[in-house]
Specification:
220 residues; alpha+beta; Ribosomal Protein S5, domain 2; Alpha-Beta Plaits; 2 domains; five-stranded antiparallel sheet
Length: 220
């Protein structure tokens, strides 16, 4: 879904609830860029549900070789809650993510297999509604041009995946825009062709961890 420079993360907090034989399972998922942020998220969810039977947490911080993971059964039988929650979260491909599955016991024991399925299904349910973003490398560029080029440059920016951040209309038009690396390369080629090498693109900033919202959701 993404390359090495593009890493999926939650764009915002999401929450869903499922009912399994009268037990309520409320899954709350959100972004966390450090262990401390993840622990604060978990504490906040616990505070929201102080009377819950269990608040089962799991998180994945980072991506790839730098991944930090954690989970807890929070009083459920060993291996029936935390590990299944973490397994589904890791299987989603998300990084920098924390989830808490809150259980309100409904009076009927689910058994080992039932607990594993219920906690796993709760995480799948919240993943299905979680808005996504990419943490990806981007370049911010500056382009100055005569007014005659502005509209064509504006259109080219969008065609090559760029986003205009600032525009200044003075004696000449100054545009600040942000591109992924591959988009910037193709934009530079198109701009050179358009202006017959008269317009120049200056990279003014490179950010290895820009957060860019996505339109699609992860398949749970």
């Amino acid at each position: 879904m993404t390359g090495d420079a593009e890493r999926l993360i939650p764009a915002a907090r999401a929450q869903t609830e499922i009912l399994v034989i009268n037990s309520r399972f409320i899954a709350t998922l959100g972004p966390a860029f450090s262990v401390e942020e993840a622990r604060l998220f978990i504490a906040a969810v616990r505070q929201e549900h102080p009377d819950a039977t269990h608040n089962v947490p799991a998180f994945v911080i980072g991506h790839g070789a730098s991944l930090i993971t954690h989970c807890s059964d929070d009083g459920e039988p060993s291996g029936t809650a935390g590990r299944p929650v973490l397994a589904v979260l890791q299987g989603s491909g998300l990084g920098d993510a924390v989830v808490v599955v809150t259980r309100y016991f409904g009076g009927t024991k689910l058994g080992t297999g039932g607990l594993v399925r219920a906690y796993s299904d709760a995480v799948r349910a919240v993943l299905a509604v979680t808005p996504l973003a990419e943490k990806t490398l981007t370049h911010t560029v500056f382009i100055e041009m005569p007014y005659a080029y502005y509209e064509q440059v504006r259109l080219l920016t969008g065609e090559h995946g760029g986003v205009i951040l600032e525009q200044d209309f003075a004696a000449r038009v100054a545009v600040t825009a942000r591109f992924r690396p591959e988009g910037l390369i193709s934009f530079q080629v198109a701009l050179r062709d358009l202006s017959r090498d008269k317009l120049r693109v200056d990279i003014i900033e490179t950010n290895p961890a820009t957060i860019l919202p996505l339109r699609y959701k992860v398949a749970p």
